[in-house]
Amino acid sequence: MKRWTVWAAAGFVWIAAAGGPVRAQEPAQSPLRLDLPGAVSLALERNHEVLRARERIRQLEGRITEVKSQAYPRLGLEAAYRRSYDESFLDLFDGFIPPEEVDFYSLKGTLDQILFSWGRVSTAIEIARVAREQARWQQEAVERDVKLQVHEAFYDLLLAQRLVEVAEETLAQKKRHLDVARKRFQAGVVNEFEVVRARVAVANARPPVIQARNRVRQAVAKLNNLLARPQDAPLEPQGELDQPPLPVRDLSAVIERAWERRPELQALVQARDLAQKNLTLARAEDKPTVGLRAEYGFATQEWDRLDFRREQWSVGVQMTWPFFDSGKTRGKIAQARSQLRDVQIALDQTRQGIALEAKVALDAVEEAEKIIEAAGQNIEQARRALELAEASYRYGVGTALDVTDAELGLTAARTDHARALRDYLVARARVLAVMNDL
């Protein structure tokens, strides 16, 4: 028995030491491949801001159900027990009738129905419905903002990947230049200083590659955050930095279309209607209300005798008129009027802001287009200059400084062109977002 125990312990130690063969290998998570429409669709499905906007609509739908209940009958059940004692009986008949403790039991059903409320109930229902419609427009505004954020994050990721390519190609160029410098040094054409300077150039080209790759990780994290995914979840964008045409370029046409379609404006129009109805509701605050009250039940002083032979019922109409409330109604009316004016001011302010937003976006499109054209022409010239500088240096005609300047010029041209493409795409997306066409 002792021998088997030793062998079992030895086997356990061997398995624990081996470790690897007894643990299942988890498959590596494959990157999510997304194009821009797919990213937008996923964001509208999972983004937290969009989900919160949808929940606000559900809350207001519940509010409508709550307010509508005021117009319908309310049924209730009341049960009561009361024990009383009254010494005032001592004054009757010179104390001939002594006071006693009395029990009282009752059970009844109630019905309450508002018959007339001077429009308070119907106005409250309309207010809840308008608030729901306002929330729907606000949800569309949230979705518009999320779409624009996804576009910008997607283009930032494409730019970051393009800059990684530029940095890596720049590093590769400097490595080729180092190889040429070494060969020329071995041939005795140049001194060791050329090789050292080329090595320094290679070393200086490595940090931009590291920084560019880090910007890719940051761009992935930003896009994943909009998609409600873990920030470090692998993501592979499907797309290129290109230059699609802008369908509308006239400023007045963009502004006019934006004023017709922007959800923020529609939400403010609903807010104006809501403020008007709040004013109507405030004016009805000191008006009379008429309601119906009905009761039916049973009452007795003995619990075992609570039956149908001791029924009680009552039906009545009651009017409540708070004709003097110490200025409460006047204060609510003043607040409602101020709210109505405030909404109109906000509506005018939003219109002006949209017009400015449209102009800024169109100007950014024009600026990016000019930079793209200039940078595109400069890339060809910079590439040709680098070829000539490398050839001249290889054959001993040019200097290493000529090659370095040409490399810097090509890197700058390619970087400017990539950034301009990204800026154009973002500006184009903002113009479409201004018109709510994104």
Explain how this protein is built.
This protein has 438 residues and is of the alpha+beta class. The protein is built from 9 helices and 6 strands; from the N terminus they run H-E-H-H-E-E-H-H-E-H-H-E-E-H-H. The protein has helices at 2-18, 36-46, 48-68, 120-186, 192-226, 251-261, 263-283, 328-394, 400-434, and strands at 32-34, 74-84, 102-116, 235-237, 289-300, 311-320. The strands form 2 sheets. Strands 2-3-5-6 form a 4-stranded antiparallel beta sheet, with no helix packed on it. Strands 1-4 form a two-stranded parallel sheet. Helix 6 crosses helix 8 (328-394). Mean pLDDT is 80; it is low at 1-27.
Quickly list its features.
single chain, 438 residues, alpha+beta, Outer membrane efflux proteins (OEP), 2 domains, elongated, disordered N terminus
